[in-house]
Amino acid sequence: MSDPDKAQFQSRAHVQYAGDVEVAPRGSRQRRSSRASHDSVSVRSLSRGRVQVDPSVVLPIQYRTLSFNVTEAQSKAPDTESKSDVGVSAEFASLDWHHIPVAEVYTRLSASPSHGLSKEQSARKLQEYGPNVPSKPRSRLWLKILGYLFGGFGTVLFIASVLVFIAWKPLGQPPAIANLALAIVLGIVWIVQAAFAFYQDWSSSRVMSSIKTMLPDECFVLRDGAKQQISGKHIVPGDMLFLSMGDKLPADVRFVEVSSDARFDRSILTGESEPLRGAVNSTEKNFLETPCIGMAGSHCVAGSAMGIVISTGDRSVFGRLAKLTSVPNTALTTLEREIYYFVALIVLIMLTMVVVVCICWGAWLRHSHPDWITVPMLIVDCVSVAVAFIPEGLPIAVTASLTIIAGIMRKNKILCKSLKTVETLGSVSTICSDKTGTLTKNQMTVTDVLVDRQSLTANAATGLTSLEQPPNTAPVPALHLLATLSALCNAADFDPTTMHLPFSLRKIIGDATDTAILRLAESLSPVSALRDAWRRVFRIAFNSRNKFMVQVVQHASDGVYLTIKGAPDILLRRCSHYVDASGSSLPLTDSQRAHVETVKDGWSAQGKRVILLARKQLPSSVLSSDVQSQDFEDAMLDAATAGLELVGIVGIFDPPRDEIPEVVRILHTAGIKVHMVTGDFKLTAQAIALECGIITSNLVDDASALSLSSLAGGSPPRDAMVVSGADLEQLDQAQWDALCAYRAIVFARTSPEQKLRIVKELQARGEVVGMTGDGVNDAPSLKAANVGIAMGSGSDIAIEAADMVLLDSFAAIVEAVKYGRVVFDNLKKTICYLLPAGSFSEFWPVMTNVVFGLPQVLSSFLMIIICCFTDCAAATAIAFEKPEADVLLLPPRNTRKDHLVDWQLILQAYGFTGMLETIASFSMAYWYAARKGIPFSVLWFGFGKIPAGMDSETYTAILNEASSIYFINLVVMQWFNLLAVRTRRLSLLHHPPLFRAATRNMYLFPAMAFALLIAVFFLYVPKFQSVLGTTSVPVAHYFLPMAFGMGILLLDEARKWAVRTWPKGFLARIAW
């Protein structure tokens, strides 16, 4: 590379590319306010029709999950890796671009550091690797359309419609208009079902159109020994790329030269606004976290660098994430699995009955009674069987139920991003809750301080520093030093617009911990004066891995100090001296160290977060090196490992939310385990868990109880466990089995990676997990959980990853669980309502027609009317049912055993209600026919025999009237079935449909009236009578079904009473 090129490389702003509008550092892009965040939640949750999404909110979820998986894959021994590790995570875990020397990078890519690639090389590589653009995802439009049309019962309905059309023409001789009408109605039902399936779905490939704008159009590379400006899509592996402030990286690069102040903003990938320092070499094992790799899509926000391209297009991290993000999630929710299970069951029964009908016709009727059922009639009979078994109103009822419940949750300030997730929450068996801000108020206050051996309340410390002549024994100098460190080693700042207010009322910009410590500092000594006296030189921000913050400061006369603030269990062992009451430095003896440990444990046991503040004097010469370099950061981290001087510790209290103990009690009563997952110290977490009611006693197990000797008994010695993140790393699968058996677990000092591991281990043991979180690093665990739950005040990335958002308080989780269970209960009730008339009572007229030679006493067209009209409105009305009083007194359903449709429900729908409705309807129809001159003895194995003295027209008219009576009998009896299925355990008197607001359902009686109007419409309109063979019905046959229906209702009330009275009796065991 020529000298002019090198000089230009060192400049800061020599590269520009077309259309670049994001040249400002990340810091200039302020995070939206909490209010704005709330608004964005509403839009994101409620607007399903948007075409684009912000990649900076979507990509970090995949990136963080991938990074955690890479770390986990690398931590496994080679002989323990499982086949499941093969995939994107394993590929990244095996990459070594960040480990190998720069010279080897050049060798692998056949590139020259002084000449770059030749024209021939770049052309050949462009042909080999393709353009540097993320490829479009495969279009799944036709697959989606086919899924809408032929998913569920769609295939059966389509085939049925086609077959009936064929039965009409050309097989119909002459064509029967009723068959044409039936075929048209079946076709309409098929299209409507597809429309409802489309309504519930939305595409996840919407991300790709936004991602395409995230890569630069133009960039500078070294080719043939000269710097050239080329299109970003023509970048190939081996290209030498020039970068300076404001540039956007077009591909993944390994840095070969970086300026000391080079910083790269990876927020589009990581979600974190803090820029990452660039480096030529790194000891970081994880390819996704190393500073010597530049990622496509990230920005150079300071300094300059040169790198060699190692991956382009779909092979880059950005391209892989884009592909992962645009792939639709094919995992089924618990509700989808249950509906597919039900569809499979119904289709299996239906096909079995169709085969029986065909066998009867082929082996018997075709020979013995050839004129009874012709081929067109056989087709219609088979279709009638299909129509009888398919509850056509179910898809509409499911969609209506989910939409209604989602609306109710929205009123409770719970935003559901997916309708199907609502029911999943109802089956949640374990909730893993974050502590700060979720269980607690996130209003931290310093309550206690310890300097020297003197433990003081924060108010007492403030009082001592405000006295003009404090007592000689008062540790005022030490308190002033504590105030200095609290002010300097602090990332929070007072809002300038509130500086005129008392310090206790001023607004502070910063996290809750820094806010509490800054307010303490101001109470002891003016923060502005302290900060004016010291120059803050360099900062290492707090992170969940180090658990401390470092601030290097310089004073005009006192020199240079490293100040540090963080977890005592990490920092105390690094201290060799401490500050006594007079401000002097003394060796930290074992006695003094034990005293600090005792105080720390005491405060932690009270639920307080304990923070240690220390310092270390550095030689002034340390500032002669570049403070922006990686070497300086490494030197400061190394200096912080030993020789620290303990200044003091502070105890910070974050009170639990007032409603949390009651919330936890209700969740426990509902059979849901509640675990706490926090980064706090074990004793602090245990104390807060005790105060919140998660654990009920201080007698809890620790990790030692998971040893093989402790597991010999087979069950946990106690019902609660407190375990740290470090302990989790040592557990084998047998110990995880034992840990997950505990009723309450407090996971302390956990990292985001461990949070994801906790979710996966619980799920592997059959738990349905709800996980709460609000931070960027929580996104992978929120995404992995069965139900990810974010707080409205959380980060945008956590909200995007979550399935639902609690806008107000964690207390709303009770309503969410309640209505999640209501969804499942109401769908069970809907199916139990639809099956007796819409399946069982429709099937037997067809079967008796084929097997016993009886006329089909209910026409196929009237079967469709029952399924899609008279029953549909009532089935939708069930979706408005309020929760039964005991819905939160029952354990969560076992998703492996408790299905939406089980043998108990089939027994209730077919063996009880269906049987009674069928017998009553048959009786009314044939009783009417007998009174009109067609005795049942003539019809039984009559195969169309007409009584003597009666013409065929009269015979047909009487049977049409009998068919209409059968139809109206079912419609009216279903009114009472509707009242019966409203509750599964409670009496109708305890859960009345009127008068009581908590149980009222005002849609039931309009639904009954609608069913009657539809029945009258199709029975009494003359055109329908002539085409479809319907007739008017005698008045008596409207009232007789009421008596039968009342009998069903009273019998079911007696059954429920027996279930409540003998909860372990026979009827309770077979109850649905």
UniProtKB/TrEMBL annotation:
Residues 96-169 form the Cation-transporting P-type ATPase N-terminal domain. Its main location: membrane. Signal peptide: none annotated. GO terms for biological process: intracellular potassium ion homeostasis; intracellular sodium ion homeostasis; potassium ion import across plasma membrane; proton transmembrane transport; sodium ion export across plasma membrane. It comes from the Eukaryota. One of its GO terms (molecular function) is P-type sodium:potassium-exchanging transporter activity. This is Calcium ATPase. It comes from Trichodelitschia bisporula.
